[in-house]
Amino acid sequence: MLSREDNERITKTGPDDPAGRLLRQYWQPAGLTSEMPAERPVKAVRLMGEDLVLFKRGEGDWGLVSRYCAHRGVDLSYGRLEDGGLRCLYHGWLYGKDGRCLEQPAEPPHSRFFEKVRISSYPCVERNGIVFAYMGGGDPPPFPAYDCFEAPEEYTFAFKGLWECNWLQGVEGGIDPSHVSFLHRFLDEDPRDVYGAQFAETVAGTDKTTAEIVGEMYRPDIEVEQAEHGLRVFAVRELDAQTRHLRVTNLLFPNAFVVPFGGDRVFCQWHVPIDDEHHYWYMIFYDFKDQTDKETLLQQRLENVTLPDYRPTRNRDNNWGFDATEQNELTYTGMGLDINVHDQWAVESMGPIQDRTVERLGVSDRAVTSNRRLLLKAIKAMEAGQPTPAHPLDETAAKELRGPLAIDTVVPAEDWQEKWRDNEAERRESSPWAAGQEVH
Questions:
Q1: pLDDT: is 63 or 195 the higher one?
Q2: Could you tell me the CA-to-CA distances from 303 to 8, 64, 198, 254 in Å, in that order?
Q3: In the chain, helix, strand, coil percent, each to 5?
Q4: How far apart are alpha carbons 111 and 420 in whole angstroms?
Q5: Helix 339-348 to helix 167-174 angle, to the nearest 10 degrees?
Q6: Cβ neighbours of residue 108 under 8 Å, at least 6 residues apart?
Q7: What number of CA atoms fall less than 13 Å from residue 162's CA on the CB side?
Q8: What is d(CA 58, CA 133) in angstroms, rounded to the nearest whole number?
Q9: Rounded-to-integer distance, Cα 23 and Cα 273, Å
Q10: I want to staple 347 with a disulfide (CB 3.0 to 4.6 A). Which of 5, 62, 169, 179 is the partner?
Q11: Cβ(273)–Cβ(30) under 8 Å?
């Protein structure tokens, strides 16, 4: 459990809150390129309690500025895209992507008043379907050489979803490897055609699916180690005396995780605060072997959300679709076959901000407790002006942040710590885009 003070330190994300200041030191997803209207790529967004407008100036060129005009406070999300910036509808003030006022048409021709006006702005970079923003002070850090950024665009797919709870609940769900044995069980239905498809695939080297392995072996040995990107988490399940099933996941500090998605697929998922009680998860899915069918994947996901907010159709208002008969006869949860809904229910049902002062954690929660210690340590370092984890200060350091390695595999019992890396190296060598990458 945490003290109330520490719980607030790692959950609240306003500009003056410790966790908010920490998250702002890292690139954060601000929007999907696919959600921006082609005819007018302008959209109001809210990030960590700040109301902003995301707009596209040209190919790969984005601006993110305050939502409200410095003149009379009207909403710039309705502004006109003109002359490489946003022009306010009220009096025609024009803002560039750096937030500087460029024109004030109603002022005298000789006036230089516009030079004194500037609204909040944040630099943006587009990566594989997501526009990332840097909301911290000083120059933004370079992008790490993570797989989700290095994979060619045609091998990736990006999406997002709204969860109505604090961001940290989403992160902690993703780095908790023991919950898959229960929350994502399937009783009699094959989930191959839905978001649980990876759990229906037979694990190489066995005659069992992932769902069967994690369901039968519900007490994995969990080990956690420090890594340059944050944490690496191992869930080890005994298949027999000679072999183990190993699932390697990662915390991508401070608010993302990287998870194997079955076979040659992996995804990286960020949990980005809208405010302290709502957040978006953003995902970049990448395939080491096959190009992605983006249109099919997009339509599958859009069937389960409402636009423009990307709120799941199964949500708190309808009890996440819970059905007692289904729970008794078909699925473990009674909430359908989409495992994303299962995760959503788990973290939303805790309440808007989980009260960590009353929880009771055990050995199986090692990753969660390790992450909290890392967060508190990083906040303390930030407040002392010291470096924080996974925050590259230059291009050389950024290139050293690779992977991170995430795999679902079968390994020998006696040397699984080394063998899983061999399996990962073999997967990359057979990849059209990852061949030759060093595994570390």
A1: 63
A2: 36, 29, 19, 30
A3: 30, 30, 40
A4: 67
A5: 130
A6: none
A7: 22
A8: 16
A9: 9
A10: 169
A11: no
169 closest CA partner among 314, 316, 24, 276: 276
What three-state secondary structure class fits 126? strand
Q: At what angle do helices 167-174 and 366-383 cross, to 10 degrees?
A: 130
Report in angstroms the alpha-carbon separations of 126 from 34, 97, 274, 287. Answer: 12, 15, 20, 19
Q: Using CA of residue 306, residue 308, residue 311, residue 317, what is the dihedral sign?
A: negative
Q: Which two tokens stand for residue 33?
A: 């390129």
Mean pLDDT of 5-12: 98
Task: Return the amino acid letter for 94.
Answer: L
Q: Report the C-alpha gap between 267 and 147 in whole angstroms.
A: 9
The length of the chain in residues reads 440
Place of tokens 């910036």: 85
CB distance 253 to 229 below 8 Å:
yes
DSSP assignment of 236-251 equals EEESSSSEEEEEEEEE
What sign results for the dihedral spanned by CA atoms 212, 217, 219, 224? Answer: negative
Report whether pLDDT(191) > 70.
no
Omega into 177 within 30° of 0, i.e. cis? Answer: no
Asked if residues 439 and 425 have their Cβ atoms less than 8 Å apart, the reply is yes
pLDDT at 337: 84
Q: Average pLDDT in the 382-408 region?
A: 95
* Nearest Cα to Cα of residue 148 among 160, 133, 130: 130
Task: Decide if 76 contacts 68 (C-beta within 8 A).
Answer: yes
pLDDT at position 83, please? Answer: 83
Q: Which two tokens mark 359?
A: 């929880």
Q: Phi first, then psi: what are they for 297, rounded to 5°? A: -60, -40
* Closest to 220 measured CA to CA, from 345, 77, 364: 364
In the chain, % of residues over pLDDT 90 = 83
pLDDT digits (tens, 9 = 90+) for 303-360: 999 999 999 999 999 999 999 999 988 888 999 888 899 999 999 999 999 999 999 9
With CA atoms as reference, report the closest residue to 252 among 352, 376, 148, 163.
Answer: 148
